[in-house]
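Our collaborator T.R. sent over the components below with a one-line note: 'Predict the complex.' Nothing else. No constraints on interfaces, no templates requested, no preferences about which chain binds where. So this is a plain run: every listed entity goes in together, and whatever single assembly comes back becomes the starting point for the next discussion.
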Amino acid sequence: GIQVEQSPPDLILQEGANSTLRCNFSDSVNNLQWFHQNPWGQLINLFYIPSGTKQNGRLSATTVATERYSLLYISSSQTTDSGVYFCAGQGGSEKLVFGKGTKLTVNP
Amino acid sequence: NAGVTQTPKFRVLKTGQSMTLLCAQDMNHEYMYWYRQDPGMGLRLIHYSVGEGTTAKGEVPDGYNVSRLKKQNFLLGLESAAPSQTSVYFCASSYRGGRGYEQYFGPGTRLTVT
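Returned assembly:
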């Protein structure tokens, strides 16, 4: 089945900095999602982006399906952006496969 | 519109005890899923359902059973809990339509087996 790899595993930023998180997937996908898991454990949908580019405030995401990767951009980071960011992909089945996540810490 | 809800939020079991986790969604979604999340890892699929009355195994199904008697509910059962089942359990649901399979998650249930 599909495999999803995320990088970097950990990222520490100062408030106001920008960052790019990467997700590589091993096969073509018909669903690619980015989630933020906050320090309380809640999973929040950020983007549904099997291809193309989307933006939502300070966050944006780009998926290049032909090259099997997706990028999540965080601009002007805030302490509330801290948490774990997960990428998850779905190929030809109903199963969404998660990467191991990128743990982001934003210091004031 | 509550989205996806889970009960209970927390539970402590002793080895060998049984319990049922309830997931409910009010979005009229066809598909529902149960995942578990262990420390330092992403979520892994336990079981899923593509419609009322159907269930299928995911990546880590052993030790769990599920039922989907109503479209809006998906139950996860542990018949004889083991310490290895200590985890956070998430339920999710999705449409099957123009937006593909975007999944929406519940708040999670933290289960400890002693």
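Summary for T.R.: The mean pLDDT of chain A is 93.
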